């Protein structure tokens, strides 16, 4: 197969999901993001919402909308975010004076680390990047960023996923833990 031929794709688009799947994806994502935001509001402050990092939006798509995906499983969700947060903070500390380099190192090392630890979770790349480009509030957290928002937020979203994704008879989550 030639290089350009590979870009045509090899399969057809997947079928649409049913109304029930859409509803439960909505309920889960609304509940999960709300729970993280409310935790911030009650624990930290009624403004700023540092607990809501952009990568949690992408995690919500996976753990509430694509629950059978290997990338959406608990090990991947928690491990991917926490490992990537650790890598991102370290990259910022080492290369923060050169944001282009810190960003590149953070995302690339996070991806390699997630592969090595079997915790690949695509939103983890964003979690690493946010540690570098997130601004003074994020930078001021230092390695606490790994525990909160990355670890605590992912943990709250996991708890909601376990509760909501198992309500309908035809849905179950997770596929595996470890």
Give a description of the structure.
The protein has 178 residues and is mostly helical. The chain has one domain. It is 65% helix and 0% strand. The protein has 7 helices and no strands. It has helices at 19-43, 55-65, 74-95, 99-117, 123-133, 136-141, 144-164. Helix 2 packs parallel to helix 7. It is globular, with a radius of gyration of 17 Å. The termini are far apart. 38% of the residues are buried. The mean pLDDT is 95.
Task: Give the ordered list of helices and strands.
Answer: HHHHHHH
Poorly predicted regions:
none
Average pLDDT number: 95
In DSSP terms (H or I, runs of 4 or more residues), the helix count works out at 7
User: What portion of residues belong to β-strands?
Assistant: under 5%
**What structural category characterises the helix and strand content?**
mainly alpha
């Amino acid at each position: 197969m030639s290089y350009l031929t590979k870009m045509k794709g090899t399969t057809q688009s997947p079928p649409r999901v049913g109304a029930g799947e859409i509803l439960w994806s909505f309920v889960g994502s609304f509940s999960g993001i709300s729970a993280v935001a409310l935790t911030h509001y009650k624990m930290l402050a009624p403004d700023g919402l540092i607990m809501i990092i952009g990568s949690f939006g992408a995690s919500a798509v996976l753990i509430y909308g694509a629950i059978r995906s290997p990338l959406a499983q608990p090990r991947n969700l928690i491990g991917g975010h926490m490992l990537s947060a650790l890598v991102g903070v370290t990259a910022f500390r080492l290369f923060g004076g050169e944001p282009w380099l810190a960003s590149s190192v953070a995302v690339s090392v996070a991806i390699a680390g997630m592969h090595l630890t079997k915790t690949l979770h695509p939103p983890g790349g964003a979690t690493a990047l946010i540690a570098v480009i997130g601004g003074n509030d994020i930078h001021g957290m230092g390695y606490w960023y790994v525990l909160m928002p990355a670890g605590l937020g992912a943990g709250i979203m996991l708890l909601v996923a376990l509760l909501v994704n198992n309500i309908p008879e035809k849905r179950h989550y997770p596929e595996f833990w470890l």
